[in-house]
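Need tokens for this chain, all 123 residues.
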Amino acid sequence: VQLQASGGGLVQAGGSLRLSCTESGRAFSFYRMGWFRRTPSSERESVAAIRLVGGATYYADSVKGRFVISEDNGKNTIYLQMDSLKPEDTAVYYCAAAKYGGRWDSVLEYDYWGQGTQVTVSS
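Here are the structure tokens for all 123 residues:
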């Protein structure tokens, strides 16, 4: 299984970016996919997740109302639309996939990880 994240870049505060994560090589169904981020001074923190059956979505309080996670089953891809970006959103963003349930916001519940894409928001 491979997860390929893309879409990061440099944007001014208040701007938007859309991250994509495409998976390949899967021989089974994932239960949930999500996005995490990490800064040089912090641990990997949860951002958003989507349950692939039913479509339930979950968001960290810091991004609610600004970020939207979605999926395109036909393309085996999830997206993270990020609007009203703030300098504190600057981080490396990782997509992840979980085979089973559990806490959506725990890195321990995810089995596969993408390589990360850098998002930089200037003030």
